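Dear U.,

For the methods section draft, I wanted the exact inputs and outputs in one place so we can describe them consistently. I've listed the two proteins in the order they'll appear in the manuscript figures. Please don't edit the token lines directly; just add comments below if something needs changing.

First protein:
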Amino acid sequence: MALPGRPFWVIVHRWAGLTLALFLAVAGLTGSLLPWFEELDAATAPAMQNAAPPRPGMAALDPLAVRAGLLARHPAARVDFVYLTRLPGRADRLYATWPDPRTGLERRDRPDWDDVFLNPWTGAEQGHRRNGDVRQGIKNLMPFLYRLHYSLALGPWGLFAMGVAALVWTVDCFVGFYLTLPPGALGKGGLWRRWRPSWKVRRPTSSYKLTFDLHRAGGLWLWPILLVFALSSVSFNLPQVYRPVLGLLGGQDDEALLEASALPSPRWNPALDFPAAARHGAALAQQETARRGLSLRPDGRAWLWYIPATGLYVYGVKSSADITQEGGGTRIAFDGNSGELRHVSVPTGAQGATTFTTWVVALHMAHVGGLAWRIAVSVIGLGITVLSVTGVLIWLRKRSARAGRRFKAAARPAPA
């Protein structure tokens, strides 16, 4: 059976692009700001997010002591994730949930915040917000833009819609690449000579030619990273598709492994409290990384996460297998009661598919490459928006031209 010809793929690309235009324009514009999330978020509420010692030389509290103080003041709250190392000059940020232990559902009498920022030296609460609720003002601007980026700020349905859009985008990357090739390119010589004009923006003789060249050449130059962003977006938003493919390629899905460990009912209070779990996690991390020929890196951010649904702690640390500056991709899961080791995950070097996922996610989130790559991701985000807008403009221009031809044909006198 013959494969569909070029006209078919033109139609596929056209309608995929029109369907994706809004999704990609929003994702591109918001994504151009997200490499600077921490700086912009702090700038919107400096008194809440920045911190300094009350007096020079004062020792900071242990992050777990800050957490314990918060829970003592708010006994109905849960804080199941805590960074064990800090960012200089910044307040400790903790995320609180307010579940009813009997049902696991959110309490009706909960306060109107879940993010809380605390002074590392005194434990005092410097500010609160309900993450992403833009009605609370500018302090929630960046969390709102982040939600807009990955879910159009529409909750689970928006998350799913953006995931489907990412899957279509992945396929359309290959369709668009094929359409830049000269017709019959695979069967003729001189491919580069005939393909080279597709990579250029010609001196514009009309607005349409400029729009077309920006769309075609921009897509070609950005094509590798567009594919990276599309694939990583599928991994974020559509795990029900990405996970099976990852498994077929030999990758390790940590979230699926944790989900498989779910208990019949949540274990809200494990035998190991957070300080004991932090010590045990650090010892296991030292032991398990050494066993794999890896070394721990002191310049990353260690963290501890308790998951009541599984009764497991996950200890994250930076090792020589991590590729990001912050680290935390090396993870040790252990039982919250017995301390028994359950799972070890390293971000690179163990399975090729897992290493690939680690890289595409890190590139998407600008967690590698330093300042230069953060700037590049901002520019690429704007480029994605330009590609979306120019694609729509090309369609509108062609649609207008077709309508004009039909009008002229209808107005032409019939032959006698």
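Second protein (the one for the lower panel):
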Amino acid sequence: MKKEYSLAHLTAISTTPLELAKIAANCGYDYVSIRQIYMGVANEVPVNLAEDKKMYQEIKALFKDTGLKLLDIELARILDGVDLTKYEEAFEIGKSLGAKHVLSSIWTDNKEYGIEKFAELCDLAKKYDLTVELEAVPIAGVKSFAEVADILRTIKKDNAGLMMDTHHFNRANDSVELLKTFPSEWFRYAQICDAPLAPPERDKMIEIMRGGRDYLGEGLIDVASILNAMPVVPYSIELPNSRKVEEYDYEGHARKCLETAKKYCDTFVTGR
């Protein structure tokens, strides 16, 4: 089965959506994963494609000319007091550009509230024929993929799924054997990277997560065992590394990300 790859925005966080799409097209990616919902993290460029009509049209033209596709809409977080309707504009724009999925994560410690709002998010996304993939994040309210599975079983939404991130899976200490028990239909795409061993300090973990991940095969995560416990899906390369960007620039880094991912996955990954 042919493997497809997307360039995640965190890999080249200081680029605009148009710049990221151009880099993805130049490097030969199948998809691009644009962060359309501003999060305010360091070096992130705030762009609203609903307001920037010129950039929107340029991205649309680039997709038509190159065959590059938009994979997902990032990132619809569930926070305390969240107004989910504020995500609708991004859903509408993303869908018009061909997006299929919405990436979400839960950042509240109020478990009942988080589940309720995630279920509402799935209903909202369904209006746009979008699926919603829930990601566990080691510094968020929902930290493990075992928790994600419990939420999916609780809400029973047919457009809800699980977004596997190899970095976050490793940090959560979830088991590959547990991953093998999850239904295949939960998996629609995954985020991949390698990384050093998880440091005990939270600050150090965030530092690696935001700017110190490794090319596949160059870190200490057993990426193959994770990806072989799930079906083959499009792989979004989320691999921020400030040192490599300084060495290669964003396009060079993105190209190296794709080259190393293809080599690794073609050698070691067959899927479930």
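Candidate sentences for the figure legend, describing the second protein: The two ends are 12 Å apart (CA to CA). The chain is about 40% helix and 15% strand.

Thanks,
Y.
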